[in-house]
Amino acid sequence: MSSVTLARPWLYFDLGQPMQVLSWAINRPGFVTADRILWREVRNVDLPVDLDVDAWLADELAAHGALDAVTFLTSRGLQHFNDAHASVGEVEAHAVATVGFSNAERVGHRVDRSGAHWGTINVAVRLNIGLTQAALLEAMSIAVEARTAAVMDVGHKTPKGISTGTGTDCVAVASPEGAVRYAGLHTEVGEALGRAVYDAVHQGAENW
Known about the structure:
It is built from 3 helices and 12 strands; from the N terminus they run βββαβββββαββββα. By secondary structure, it is of the alpha+beta class.
């Protein structure tokens, strides 16, 4: 059973058990085993230009006994997090998202922010079904597709057109290890995962 706890400047997504997690998060990226995913809220004053961010975050996590946690950084106020659940057949998906558009982008283009504007969309989703690593990769593609669809449906504009995300987005997908080989749009896994991520991100995008 998963749960979400807000204790600013932290947001805790307890996965309920050790799971395989795939992400490109700043702390513990790649394929790892973890039982929680964290968000750390930051402001400009927290991150001066000459700061070693990895070392700073490691110190913050160590102080909380959380060096083992997959961890995002976000400038979005964590009180604005959204979560959503979806069930299809035996599959249950729980998605948690923080959504900010300060540095929104349209894929294939870059806006010159010159360090003035930073925001992000961070999404974590937990599945109850055991996946192979290949299926977890496919699940990641569905999560990113759902994130992008939700952002585009809100219609947030950039100088290059409707935004598809931000320049610093991150996604983490967690599941037990298992034998399920596919997680595409034609599967119960893909449907539940996609719906949960879409709903969480879309609500966050509308709130922004």
